[in-house]
From TrEMBL:
Keywords: Cell membrane, Hydrolase, Membrane, Metal-binding, Metalloprotease, Protease, Transmembrane, Transmembrane helix, Zinc. Its cofactor is Zn(2+). Gene3D superfamilies: Metalloproteases ('zincins'), catalytic domain. This is Peptidase M48 domain-containing protein. The chain crosses the membrane at residues 116-138, 144-168, 310-329, 335-355. Binds 1 zinc ion per subunit. It holds the Pfam family Peptidase_M48. Belongs to the peptidase M48 family.
Length: 416
């Protein structure tokens, strides 16, 4: 039933069903080389029937989308539908610039990061598990911990993230978007126009030494007018994050852009420090409405105090573990290791469950300001590969801090 609902949501997001059919047919013929494809249009229903030695499948589109069939071909059609939504059926090259006053900076000049640097909660959870095991071993060895060390262990899940958040903000300060505008230049090529796309990439590699916005525009127009690198579409967009947030009434949170090849965003909301982090890849993938939806989702986390809630639960878990190991287990002569392992798994499950529900709450908060379709479209563009795996494998993720993509999409669609 969940898969049927997801396909209904996907159908609402597809503006041009004929374009989807053309894209899938071209992909199957040009990239995969499937020899037998039949196309049928009847009573406002468009069908694409695919058959080869690996199986057969049928994609039909009218007021809904249905994929029927067997084996690998059905999985492939499902993947191509999601790929079309996630990429708009095109290859894109995006040049991102930051403009502060009269000065222009390239996003590539910002410090490059390999991973989103806000996974501290996961590290703190791991640290607490390690500390609990160490305390257990010390207790078994009859080593009594001083009260000062116990207090330090209780406070560390609160102090370490706050210090880390301040240091991180200093590190990414050059990407502050509150007093900047993003100039986004997009060159769009066909999915199967690989040669022209690669030529454009090689041409743009020479942009490194160009500093002024006028020179960059002139350079890109040379590419646009060159028959060997000319894109199907060219667009320049100026995005003012400050204007967007002021219009929505969000004025007190910092917004930072980091140079990172990962389509993601994150937020930190702790006492005295609140900000949102956007990756350059995310800004490249989404249009301004979708980007606004993601920002408001992250602001929702801050408004609801989700970071602080998670750290409170972690500190509470630390207190419970220390109480178990130091007092309760010795007093009642209970087996230490099995009880501690059970407690750790129970605590971890409760923390992750809380974090999952916080994602739903942040989605609901964002939809107070933006249409649900923008949020759903942004979610699919960021996670379409993950959504495909969910629909194909139907595996549940017990130890995950985020709910399933399909679950979030269904909830977004149900909020009016």
């Amino acid at each position: 039933m969940a898969a049927i609902r997801i396909y209904q949501i996907i159908r609402d997001l597809i503006k041009d069903p004929q374009s989807l059919i053309n894209y899938i047919e071209s992909y199957l013929l040009s990239v995969i080389g499937i020899p037998y494809i039949e196309r049928e249009i009847n009573n406002d229903v468009t069908r694409l029937i695919v058959s080869n030695e690996h199986g057969n499948a049928e994609l039909s589109i009218n007021h809904e989308i249905r994929i029927k069939g067997h084996d690998k071909v059905k999985v492939l059609l499902n993947a191509l539908v999601l790929r079309y939504l996630g990429t708009n059926g095109a290859r894109k090259i995006t040049v991102l610039l930051l403009r502060r006053g009269n000065r222009v900076y390239r996003v590539n000049d910002l410090p490059r990061m390999r991973s989103l640097p806000v996974g501290l909660i996961g590290l703190v959870i791991l640290l607490i598990m390690i500390i609990s095991i160490v305390i257990t071993i010390l207790r078994i060895m009859n080593v009594i911990l001083s009260m000062h060390i116990i207090i330090l262990m209780l406070l560390s899940p609160l102090i370490i993230p706050i210090i880390y958040s301040y240091i991180l903000q200093l590190k990414i300060r050059w990407g502050n978007l509150r007093n900047s505008e993003i100039i986004k230049i997009t060159l769009e090529y066909g999915e199967f126009d690989e040669q022209r796309f690669n030529e454009a990439l090689r041409f743009l590699s020479r942009i490194e030494n160009i500093k002024s916005l006028t020179e960059i525009r002139r350079f890109i127009m040379t590419l646009v007018n060159n028959p060997g690198t000319k894109p199907q579409a060219y667009n320049e967009e100026v995005i003012s994050i400050s204007s967007i947030l002021d219009k929505l009434g969000v004025k007190k949170y910092g917004i930072y852009l980091i140079n990172m090849d990962q389509c993601n965003a994150a937020s930190i909301g702790l006492p005295g420090i609140n900000y949102v982090i956007l990756t350059s890849r995310l800004v490249s993938c989404l249009n301004s409405d979708e980007l606004t939806a993601v920002i408001m989702h992250e602001v929702g986390h801050i408004v609801h105090g989700d970071s602080a809630k998670a750290l409170f639960l972690i500190s509470l878990s630390q207190l419970v573990n220390i109480a178990l190991i130091t007092y309760i287990i010795p007093l009642m002569s209970l087996p230490a290791i099995p009880i501690l392992i059970g407690a750790l798994f129970m605590e971890l499950f409760m923390i992750l469950l809380t974090m999952r529900f916080s994602e739903y709450s942040a989605d609901k908060y964002a939809m107070k300001f933006i249409p649900g379709k923008d949020l759903a479209m942004a979610l699919i563009k960021v996670t379409w590969k993950e959504l495909h795996q969910e629909l194909a494998s139907k595996r549940s993720r017990v130890l995950s801090s985020h709910p399933s993509v399909s679950g979030r999409l269904i909830r977004i669609a149900s909020i009016k």
